User: Fold DUF7344 domain-containing protein from Haloterrigena gelatinilytica.
Amino acid sequence: MDQHDAQKLPHRLTVVGEESETQSSLLCHRYRQYIIQRLQTADRPLMLDRLAIELAARTHDKPVDYVALETADDLRTTLRDDHLLPLVDASIIAYDELTGKLTLTEQAADLTPSEAVSD
Assistant:
């Protein structure tokens, strides 16, 4: 996925189902929404490093090739520590710490684009 494709992703998610209140609170941050949206469009597991670079490019409105490594490193740490673990704990994504691979779980099947969740 290139920078242009990443900008086409829906900007918001909502949850359908019994646990929608709990999961909606997990999805209130734009980084968590982007993680899930990006994984929904991926045809294979996504690497945390790649996700950090793409999100840094999107956040700073720059092409992926122009993202400073420090920026991506800082964002990778933030993603891992503040955003991935809650999604893993909620069984929305699976994260392999050894390989850095991210995948969606079946739990994420109830997540759909929406305007209902705020940043």
Summary: The longest helix spans residues 69-89.
